[in-house]
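anyone else get weird line breaks when pasting these?? whatever heres mine. first is seq + tokens for prot A
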Amino acid sequence: MRRTTAITVACMTAAALTVTACGRTAENGGSTAGQTGAAVSTGKATGTITVWAMGAEGDNLSKLTKDFETANPGVKVQVTAIPWDAAHDKFTTAITAGKTPDVAMVGTTWMGEFASSDALDPTPAQIDKSAFFEGAQKTTEVNGTSYGIPWYVETRVLFYRTDLAKKAGYDAAPTDWQGLHDMAKAMQTKAGAQYGIGLQAGGEGSWQTVMPFAWSDGADLTKDGGKAYNFDSPQLLKATQYYQSFFTDGISNKSAPATPTTEPDFASGKVPMFISGPWMMSAVEKVGGAGFKDKYNVAPIPAGTAGSSSFVGGSNFVVFKNTKNRDTAWKFVSWLADPKVQAKWYTISTDLPSVKSAWQDPALASDKKLAVFGKQLETAKAPPSFPTWEQAVKGLDTEMEKITKTGEDPATGLKTAQQQADSIGTGL
């Protein structure tokens, strides 16, 4: 759903900085733990900056930047929209050639790679890191140094049909692992569902559905002081065994089509539960038709021994070290973190704010379902910012497919994924 609530954007004034830059070294791609970016001047922004942004965000960003230009007369923000499928190669080519934009939207899993290439400017002290959801802020950090800000966030929660849950004997969502398994089974036996819950049967990105359970049981994807991958931990093994049980018990479809049919299956009741992000609210309501929003609800990921956790994703905004207008670049990024600006961006894009206080805006606070996502974000976690993350996690996704579809022993699969990750290394 697109909100049209009008929000007045306050004029941006940059705060003075009191911390100067720490020296950079050649180790770890020029990154030293605890770096702080050089001070940014006070006063209005001036000059021109170039900005790259991907997908729908790239298409819509100019609607927001006009407010920054109005607040800073004479400033020009030049936005270039880039397709997601071409973005990574475009960035790496630009970094190699030394022709990066001043500012850019960057996927969270690219941060380690770009920071280790010494392409990113460390975050100045003016930006209050505590203003962001902790898990989102962690996505900006590489070797203890923050680069940029978390711009928008998303997390995953449980979607479930409340009307069918009542037929299955449930008035509320499950709160623990056993409760989820039991309720999903009851959706089949008592509410007529073909499958109790839709879970991804391995393949690309399946780790994002498995890890919320693992994190909820205290798992850590790193070991040796954060210097190595940790795919075969006892916590991840326990979560993977639990995840596998939905497929071996016939509660989830191990032969689900490669192209998801989540919305129609949810609307028809064929699969009345699934785990996904906030974008699915408008998607299922569109397919379900009038009144469907009253037939479902969302709930936090059922808790393990360490509580409820989930995956935090989204995109960050960074400043490249090659910028010719660093002050204005950082003033723009700082402005993007203003709670009022974050709330207005939500009305334009429906991207969820990374700044916690922005969730108090009426555009978000009035939506009870959205509040569940906000609560989940308080404990949501991100994968490690290793430059090789996307390469290493492919092995985990591959093994998860064997575990869900062919019944591979989870311990064997995770050991294989660990061996592959060890051979790849962290890239740091």
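and prot B, same format (seq, then tokens)
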Amino acid sequence: MSMGRQFWVIAHRWAGLTIALFLAVAGITGALLAFMHELEAWLAPQAHLVSAPTADSKPLDSVELRERIQALYPGAVINYLPLHVEPGHTLKLGVDRLDPVSGAIAPWSPTMDEVFVDPYTGKIVAERLWGDPTQGAITLMTFLYRLHYTLASGKIGRYVLGIAALVWTVDCFIGFFLTLPQRRRREASCAEQSARPWWPRWKPSWLVRWRGGKHKVTFDLHRAGGLWLWPLLFVFAWSSVSFNLDEVYDPVMKLFGQEQLLDGVPALAKALHAPTLDFRAAVERGREHARREAEHRGLTLNPEGFSALLYRPKQGVYVYYFTTDRDFTNRGGRTMVLFDGNTGELRKVRLPQGQNGANTFTNWILALHMGSVWGLPYRIAVSALGLLVTMLSVTGVLIWMKKREARSLAALKLGRVRSAVAQ
């Protein structure tokens, strides 16, 4: 083995050992999170599911439901409002409060920052603190999300997983390189070099020798599994950097022309928590902007698709999400218009694809990571991939342990031979 290849073998080994535990945790939790929506409803149906009073009953307007919740929680801050209520489900709203001392937005109470509302009656059917493992089934999946995203350790955990994702991204290329057939020695004859073309020498890397013994099976599962899954592994690794280490991801993607939603929208000197346009007026303004931009850009609106309104007090702007024929995710709602909270003036339009190549790439890898494209079959594939990532981590550790044992035995034998010679 050449010195250069030996270096990359060592780099791959220690990169894998460093991130193995993190990838195993992310893989197992990710396998479950691919079905988070269904599992939450199964674990806590009293919070997520609801029946219409009559067959022809229609849910109340989301803005009205928000106003009712604010009446029940005086001073509540609800800056994100889904405008589309899924049939048979409650409306989930985040409920925060404004800290009078710091001016920061914080959870409503130490035990609650979300409410579940019956959209037909406006009645609160459940409350929870998102990600709190002590509240039982109603927060179990959100805790797994925290574990998946931050190791349930806040900002420190997010950075740790971000660095692991960055190492994983680089290691994807190292691992791929190591599967390639090694160059033949220079002294080999031309006839010998042409006897076995390049592909037949690489082909074994794609196969598993099921009858080759435990170590060979383990090694082949690790190598062949990484090859077959390589495109998705890279997608999940680099998208994880986007989620957890945007300090690295954003500058890199900016080199390719990526733009952030709030680029060119400066923060205000003081956060604006009560803009001139209230939520009801902002919803109407958002719909108006959406209609105009759809007509101007030749987009087809989907009135049955997902829509929502988000307010950003630090910038004093609203973001209206709606669904058009440019949306490719299962639920849609990733077409956006951003407008001023006081004047309603349109500031920016964002399309999920076809507007900016780097942004389209990011939107796609994030959607692939979250299993929000191509329906149920792909979500099953994402869940399986989570388990396979865990398998790659475990087999990598087993391969290292086996080689470490072999090196230890070789060193022991060498020591005995030297001792015998010395005597």
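btw re prot B: Residues 260-355 form a domain with the Nuclear Transport Factor 2; Chain: A, fold (CATH 3.10.450). Strands lie at 80-82, 91-94, 96-98, 105-107, 114-117, 124-128, 308-312, 317-322, 335-340, 346-350.
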